[in-house]
């Protein structure tokens, strides 16, 4: 499959040769790297993308889960076209900032909002607000969860199985070089789906005088395929953090606006103190937002925390966000996504069962995946222990060679857009069946 892909992507190879001269590694972000070369994209339209070789693909990658609106949505195009002649950046608030905040407050049940330009900035600022609000430094996160590329959260992700450490005392390891050890030491990770381990760790930290300012987590983990919370887990986390006076942050960069109108907060019915958004919010423009309770956000309003950024609330982004919320991400759109996602999950599961593959299909809202694993994944440890990494890699190549574009890597999920149709789902399922048949032949 690798050789076949190389043959189909010679224009990408040529562009890679050219790109490498002045663009480090030939890409704009290290997550775009791929051996032997990245796939360079020429354009997208609705549920499809075309690479520079002219290969047409159904897009299930969707810009790392950002493009739930689909590519070049006319409503967003119209909003951008209307905004552009009126100027695209002032560094001053505009009306769209207000309209978007009103709608986010309604959807996520949090009254106060601020904007950023990415998910990383949103989690960075949310953590600073939580630290200011509590007067504490330690940050608690879930082992294996990705929350962006700032130092505090580039800890305890992508860890090899033999370095994970003991469950009650999981390793704090930097993800890549250049992250100061003193910062790493302030971040403590606990396993997902284990409220008991979280509470015991909080109590130990408290005894050491290092009680956490916040717990930052995804309510459903999205960077290990999709790992859903076990019944009662989120409720227990809410109760524990409230009892200990710890700010609970749901990082909804991937789930927000993607799995329900009000994200995981609405879907699971557990109200955090803060929410971070990005990705889908901007409909393809760089975006980010932080929502919080009156109490927590008071440290922004009394100016003790500087939540700042030249491009925060950029008018183009906010025009796209407003059009998305008002015209694209409607109740009907979420019903359509749910219909498609049920079909793709059920279709994949039926194939897993029929061919007796190691794994299972899982989905929520617009997102899902086939987890190639010999046992159910409930946290990072069970993911690493049981994943059939070779099969996961093969599935990606196999899909790509047959016009199904997925996020490279073994950790990401599919994202559907409102422009996907039953035809796209049929194509996905057909290719998956072909893979299954090939594997068991
Ligand atoms: N949080 C989560 C849950 C994410 O998945 C990501 C990006 N994949 C981020 C934060 C960081 O967002 P960004 O890449 O926009 O900085």
From TrEMBL:
Signal peptide: none annotated. Keywords: Aminotransferase, Pyridoxal phosphate, Transferase. Pfam families: Aminotran_3. The keyword Lipid metabolism does not apply. Its cofactor is pyridoxal 5'-phosphate. InterPro entries: Aminotrans_3 (IPR005814), Aminotrans_3_PPA_site (IPR049704), PyrdxlP-dep_Trfase (IPR015424), PyrdxlP-dep_Trfase_major (IPR015421), PyrdxlP-dep_Trfase_small (IPR015422). PANTHER family: GLUTAMATE-1-SEMIALDEHYDE 2,1-AMINOMUTASE, GLUTAMATE-1-SEMIALDEHYDE 2,1-AMINOMUTASE 1, CHLOROPLASTIC-RELATED. Belongs to the class-III pyridoxal-phosphate-dependent aminotransferase family. SUPFAM superfamilies: PLP-dependent transferases. GO terms for molecular function: transaminase activity. It comes from Microbacterium fluvii. This is Aspartate aminotransferase family protein.
